[in-house]
Amino acid sequence: MSTATQGNSIAITASNINNGPEHLLVLVHGIMSGSSDWTYTEAELTKHLGKNFLIYASSSNTYTKTFSGIDEAGKRLADEVMQVVKKTKSLKRISFLAHSLGGLFARYAVAVLYSPDTSTSGKLGDPQNCTMENSERTNFSKGGLIAGLEPINFITLATPHLGVRGKNQLPFLFGVTILEKIAAPVASLFVGQTGTQLFLTDGNPNKPPLLLRMASDCEDGKFISALGTFRFRTVYANVSYDHMVGWRTSSIRRETELGKPPSQFLDGYKHVVDVKYCTPVPSDGSQFTPRAMKAKETAQNASYTENTVEYHQIMEEEMIRGLQQLGWNKVDVNFRSATLPFFAHYNIHVKNERLHNAGVGVIAHVADSLRQSEATILAPSF
User: Fold this and answer.
1) By its UniProt entry, which InterPro entries does this protein fall under (predicted)?
2) Which of 46, 110, 238, 285 could make an SS bond with 226 (beta carbons 3.0 to 4.6 A apart)?
């Protein structure tokens, strides 16, 4: 069986060096949650992945700590991962599995933990606008380490990669325009700096919001290059009934790219309805133009006006352009036929085995994907 730990409870013995686990799998919970969110998933992964895996449920951003900002939480997560790596000398590879907001914490953390392969790394982006300098750089999927280890899988479950601003990005508002406009200015009152960042209104008007910067390589971090070091990047997205995170933002797609989800489940994986690999899309990356600056200022100062729609549209398109420079496996999940479909956001990672067990097929799919990728990596080459 694999080794499973939570928080700082790693036991260090001589076997860690010679016969210990080689692959660190970091589990990252979402907003107002803790490592106990992963109780079912951790047990299943421990059962199926084998002794080469150290499964670690992070605990550095529990509950109200998730309100302090994606960047601050990402730095805490990075520090926590480094402590695990330092204590476990046998480790060679690293993967991340994150739920909801935890996916953004993980994206920030891997940029902090990233060390480039200087023979293949790209140039650092413009320090003011956080855009990429070389428009011909489209292959980021080479070279580099994360926490000194070989990056293998980066997996998110119902993560708001494009934030929660815009039509139907925060489904519990039911697409009601006035509610979507009111949500942005009051978000910080309930979830602090994290809320401001999720609604893309953080920082000065002339500076890109954090989530846009995280769709590029810039002075804050080489976010795209860090993601590009992983052999496999996978996003699981609820196509409906997720009251927290919309299909578009969790699957990194434009509205026109959604379509109608299949109705049939994949064989052996209940509620998983589609798996598709989306190849990298060459572009000059995300941009923050003078038009975007003006739109951001309007959104910050007049959050209730129709003019904020332009800002949402600009930011979403630029984030997609940045993130689609990498290839992604996109897995669509549909809990429409589940007994409690409105728990989709928690079903997808089986937060509570009794209430959210509709998601066991999703976790089985995750486990098999991790096992297959490990087998591929360890297979002898001829």
Assistant:
1) AB_hydrolase_fold, DUF676_lipase-like, Lipase-like
2) 110
Query: Which H/E stretch holds residue 163?
Result: none
Position 174 pLDDT exceeds 90: no
Q: For the residues of 38-107, what is the DSSP string, one character each?
A: GHHHHHHHHHHH-TTEEEEE--TT-GGGGGS-HHHHHHHHHHHHHHHHHH-TT--EEEEEEETHHHHHHH
Using CA atoms, how far apart are residues 115 and 327, in angstroms rounded to an integer? 20
- What is the C-alpha separation between 188 and 67, in angstroms, rounded? 9
- For residue 4, what are its two tokens? 């499973």
Residue, of 301 and 171, whose pLDDT is higher: 301
pLDDT of residue 3: 57
d(C-alpha 335, C-alpha 333), whole Å: 7
Residue 303, pLDDT above cutoff 70: no
Among 53-62, 177-186, 255-264, where is mean pLDDT lowest? Answer: 177-186
Grouping H, G, I as helix, E, B as strand and the rest as coil, residue 138 is coil
| Antiparallel, parallel or unpaired: β 232-238 and 150-157 | parallel
For residues 88 and 12, the answer to whether their CB atoms sit within 8 Å is yes
Task: Single out the residue of 336, 160, 172 nearest to residue 237, CA to CA.
Answer: 160
Tokens of 39: 């109780």
Count other C-beta atoms under 10 Å from residue 373's C-beta. Answer: 19
Any idea which of 65-74, 196-205, 274-283, 364-373 has the lowest mean pLDDT?
196-205
Q: Tokens 């805490």 sit at which residue? A: 76
Is 275 in contact with 131 (CB distance < 8 Å)? no
- For 164, phi then psi, to 5°, come to -125, 15
Closest-CA residue to 230 (of 102, 109, 55): 109
pLDDT for residue 219 is more than 60: yes
**Exposure letters 188-225 (e unless 16+ CB within 10 A, then b):** beebbbbbbbbbbbbbeeebbbbbbbbbbbbebbbbbb
